[in-house]
UniProtKB/TrEMBL annotation:
Listed InterPro entries: ABATE (IPR010852), ABATE_dom_sf (IPR023286), Znf_CGNR (IPR021005)
Domain Zinc finger CGNR: 161-202
Designated name of the protein: Zf-CGNR multi-domain protein
Length: 206
């Protein structure tokens, strides 16, 4: 059922979507609809899929950040990896609970709020004669931007857009950013087409 809540005001300048490998072993493009959820899907969201882990080293984190923040300074220390995984796993658990319409664990909310309270990437108007402020994005600024995205995604008026894929055998969660609020699948190419094929077969058989 389409949600009547407003679309989550996700950070429009941060691209979403990434290659993702589920249990069939084939990588496919999963656009979760929000940078913070994409970040959550570099881990297993607390669902017991250790094979989903993509951030094994500070270099892995630096590479992921660069896909979202091209101005990243690339400086990722081991403590950044620890912080990033803390933030990511908190967002992951919030994602699962939001999709199940369950109450959030206040500790996860605290973690997101902690990072969201730090300086993020400042907005800038195009067309000026010089660039104000620093030229590059630090890892901490990237975390703050992701945390603030999570704040908007999980806020009371937007959280209805966080949904589980409608396919029975798929529990992936996305943010529906479509204007009409009618997104049903993790991916049209994957679960959407499978459902269409199933419906077609049923119609042929019936
Ligand atoms: Zn799906």
């Amino acid at each position: 059922m389409p949600s009547t809540t407003a679309a989550a005001p996700a950070s429009p300048s941060v691209p979403t979507g990434q290659w993702f490998t589920t249990r069939d072993g084939k990588p496919w493009w999963f656009d979760s609809g929000a940078p913070s959820l994409d970040f959550a899907y570099t881990g297993d969201l607390g669902l017991g899929h250790p094979e989903w882990e993509q951030l094994h080293s500070p270099e892995d984190l630096a590479a992921w950040i660069l896909t979202r923040f091209p101005d990243s300074d690339g400086i990722v220390h081991p403590r950044h990896l620890t912080d990033g995984i803390m933030l990511r796993d908190a967002i992951g658990r919030l994602t699962v609970r939001a999709s199940r319409r369950e109450a959030f664990d206040p500790r996860d909310v605290d973690a997101v709020n902690l990072f969201a309270a730090t300086p993020d990437i400042p907005p800038a108007l195009e067309g000026g004669s010089r660039r104000a402020g620093r030229q590059t994005t630090s890892t901490n600024q990237a975390f703050a931007t992701l945390a603030r995205d999570a704040v908007s995604v999980f806020s009371a008026d937007a959280v209805g857009r966080v949904r589980e894929c409608a396919a029975e055998d798929c529990a992936l969660v996305y943010v529906d950013t479509s204007r009409a609020g009618t997104r049903r699948w993790c991916s049209m190419q994957r679960c959407g087409n499978r459902a269409k094929v199933r419906k077609f077969r049923a119609a042929q058989a019936g």
